[in-house]
Amino acid sequence: MKKGLANLIFISLILAIIPKIAGAQGLNQSDTSAFAQIDFIKTDFNFGDLNQGNKAEHIFEFKNIGQLPLILNNVLTTCGCTVPEWPKDPILPDSIGVIKVIFDSTSKIGRQNKVITIRSNSKKGDFRLRISAMVLPQEKTKNK
Q: How far apart are CA 128 and CA 117, in angstroms?
């Protein structure tokens, strides 16, 4: 009789706990304000015409529109000609941050399209920025 009563109490507890667990999971999935959220003012930039060998830079501005601090874990580029600089400290909610991108046109020629991938704790996951340029060939100096 004790074993049957113990099983009944155990099953009752499980049945009482399951709806609370399911309700809490549903709340977390739909409540997006409890995350960091990155929002860029502009996600692409065209440097226009660049002479081969020149360096150009652009600053992408973003805001944390979420409720938790935004942490940029890593910023990756598609090649070594593009170098990003980003904040290592958390960006607080409603605060603004910047990512500076430096493009080196040495050994490049023609249309260049580069992607910068931001890895963070943002609700949106990975975020991509794009830069482009038309690299003009370097004129060779004539010997006199």
A: 5
